[in-house]
Amino acid sequence: MSVRSKSSKAWLNEHVNDHYVHLAQKDGYRARAAYKLLEINEKDKLIRPGTVLADLGSAPGSWSQVAAQLAGSSGQVFALDILPMDALEGVSFIQGDFR
Ligand SMILES: C[S@@+](CC[C@H](N)C(=O)[O-])C[C@H]1O[C@@H](n2cnc3c(N)ncnc32)[C@H](O)[C@@H]1O
Fold first, then answer.
1. 16 pLDDT tier (thresholds 50, 70, 90)
2. Which of 71, 54, 64, 80 lies closest to 29 in space, CA to CA?
3. Which residue, by CA, sits nearest to atom 18 of ligand 1?
4. Domain that holds residue 50
5. CATH code, domain carrying 26
6. Is 44's pLDDT higher than 80?
7. In the structure, what pLDDT confidence band is assigned to residue 15 with cuts at 50, 70 and 90?
8. What's the CA gap between 62 and 37, in Å, rounded?
9. 63-83: per-residue pLDDT in tens?
10. How many angstroms separate the CA atoms of 60 and 31, rounded?
11. C-alpha 22: how far from its chain's center?
12. Structural domains in the chain (count)
């Protein structure tokens, strides 16, 4: 077995058994990274109801999901990515290079 396929297997195993991957699936988040933003926001309160923000490099969209929830209907979330991203309620997506 090559080093590469060994590490791919290890990555797959870790991913499949990862607690936050399971939680993200259960909670409907597109990636486990959602919990990182929730944790940051718990501490620093960066996003509140009414916040207007841009999510630079947003795909697949888990931070945008969290941001839209936290900003609420009085806030606004603009998501930008060079890749396509499936639509999210409360998020305006712009595809392109944010530079
Ligand atoms: C790690 S992913 C972001 C994951 C996202 N925060 C989430 O929670 O789902 C980084 C993203 O940045 C995008 N990206 C990197 N450089 C970019 C650029 N110059 N313009 C637009 N998108 C960019 C990539 O296409 C990629 O989808």
1. confident
2. 64
3. 97
4. 3-95
5. 3.40.50.150
6. yes
7. confident
8. 9
9. 999 999 999 999 999 999 999
10. 7
11. 15
12. 1
Three-state DSSP class for residue 54: strand
Which amino acid, residue 3? V
**Residues lining ligand 1, CB < 6 A?**
30-31, 33, 57-63, 80-83, 97-99
Specify the residue for token string 């509140």: 48
CA of 1 to the centre of ligand 1 (A): 32
Tell which atom from ligand 1 comes closest to the C-alpha of 61: 9
Tokens of 77: 């979330």
State in Å: Cα 76 to ligand 1 middle: 19
Do 62 and 85 contact (CB within 8 A), yes or no? no
E strand or H helix that includes residue 93:
strand 91-95
